[in-house]
Design goal:
By secondary structure, the protein is mainly α. It contains 10 helices and no strands. The protein has one domain (44-230).
Length: 231
């Protein structure tokens, strides 16, 4: 099990390094971007796909979800927290695009990075041990869900979106995000269910959540660098 845990930790760190070039890009793949820019009218199927793809490849969202469910053992608790996260990011994704609410993408993504730091710190009991208080975990997940949704909205706001079919396309994108989240969460839960049956889970929980915090700080650093250097 020791070797297994090391492989998991190494995989997390390698993934973060591999993703570093895109962490400040705020972009969408070239082919997807070309389609979004040129799309006219409702195209529900493609926007469902784009939403699912964006979530499945959204490492910041996935790291946060890993932290959220790390110590949740009952399925009803998993569903409750994930539902609050889903409700939060659906609100700001739809409101951000359809309501024209804008914010700097780098700063929003920096806050998303902080959400990963928060969850790792919370899983380590840092608030109680070091600060003497415990934030409401449900309220925190919902609040950070709002920022995660706004982060998704800033990606779409980079494009000129045709008003023809816009509502249907954005709703489809949002549903696609939920589909992608469901698929990714299923894989994460399967992995966690297996890992929890091993003797090394409790031994390496501290190390894993420390790595989660480091990953979050790394994302914050990337985004703030992009903000100050790239504007």
């Amino acid at each position: 099990m020791q070797g297994f845990a090391r492989v998991v930790l190494l995989g997390v760190l390698v993934a973060l390094v591999a993703w570093s070039p895109v962490a400040t890009a705020h972009g969408v793949e070239e082919g997807d971007a070309a389609f979004i820019e040129g799309n006219e009218g409702a195209n529900i199927g493609v926007f469902l796909y784009l939403g699912a793809k964006h979530m499945v490849t959204g490492y910041d969202h996935l790291l946060f979800l890993v932290g959220v469910i790390f110590f949740l053992y009952r399925m009803k608790d998993v569903l409750l927290y994930v539902s609050m996260f889903t409700f939060g990011h659906s609100i700001t994704l739809i409101a951000g695009v359809l309501g024209g609410i804008h914010a700097n993408a780098y700063l929003i993504d920096a806050i998303i990075g902080l959400s990963v730091v928060y969850k790792g710190f919370d899983n380590l009991g840092g608030f109680q041990r070091l600060l003497g208080f415990q934030p409401n975990p449900k309220a925190a997940v919902f609040l950070f869900g709002l920022f995660h949704g706004f982060g998704l909205a800033t990606k779409l706001q980079e494009f000129h979106l045709s008003p023809d079919g816009l509502v249907a396309n954005i709703l489809s994108f949002n549903i696609g995000v939920e589909v992608g989240q469901f698929l990714a969460l299923g894989l994460i839960l399967l992995f966690m269910a297996y890992w929890r049956t091993t003797r090394g889970f409790n031994r390496y929980a501290f190390l894993t959540n420390t790595a989660l915090m480091c990953g979050g700080f790394l994302l914050v650093g990337y985004q703030l660098t992009g903000y100050f250097v790239g504007g």
